[in-house]
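Before a colleague's protein record goes any further, I have to sign it off. Alongside the sequence sits a line of tokens, each denoting a local backbone shape. I want your independent view on whether this chain really folds as the tokens say. Where you disagree with what is written, explain briefly why. This is what I was given:
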Amino acid sequence: MIDFLDDAPVAGSLDTVWHAGWPSPRHDPAPEIQVHAYTEHTVILRQNKSVHYEAPFLFLLFGNDRALLIDTGATSDPDHFPLRATVDGLIEDWLMRNPRAQYGLTVAHTHGHGDHIAGDGQFSERPGTMVVGPGLDDVTAHFGLDGWPHHIAELDLGGRVLDLVPGPGHQSAALVFYDRHTGLLLTGDSLYPGRLYVKDRAAFAETVDRLLDFCVTRPVTHILGCHIEMTTTADVDYPAGTTYQPDEPPLQLTTAHLHTLRRVLAETAGQPGSHPSGDFIVVYTS
């Protein structure tokens, strides 16, 4: 059995260059999915922008009893986006190093927008697999999130425990995942280097407050969202639909960005439109 509590949070590596598409998407030599081992038990995947411009990041976390796949990308067709085959291969490799008689997989989501759930169907008939629906009723029932959005739940993968923090505001059933083993805070579309689309400002501000309170008592190594849309120039993003982004900043943000986000939300209350804020842009959609 692996001790996921020993020396937590463990250090991981973000020493990689994320593939950011190709000038001609049809001639992109890179695979449909980029795979990066953050630790020996934690994998970050990115969908190729040449397959879908959203290029979401996905996360595969291994526990003693089961693995957790967070999000399934923007493309359903396995011929164009072989997520199931990729995940199966990664689990097989992990089990070769860490043999188990039985091993399960849970598929969950940061939220229910199409670019995060499109690949769900690839896992619908996979043995030993639970696909948690993206709707609010599905999320609250499966994870025991009674009193949504005011209570936090725990998910135990077998000695590896994650805290599930309700994160509505961008989308009504959004979740933030905190991995105690690595100290990673996985914020979905609530915070990342890009355009933060705020549908419900009051709920979004409460989410940021909830995360700030949460982080006071937890060691956060990195904040990882699900997209990169900014350039390395402050306040400047790539246009929506861009399939080649050669001047991307890093994916990882810090808790300082949460404080900046809360300040921007306060300063722009009642002001519609887009508000560039350095490493991200707050966009009010209603």
The longest strand covers residues 33-39.
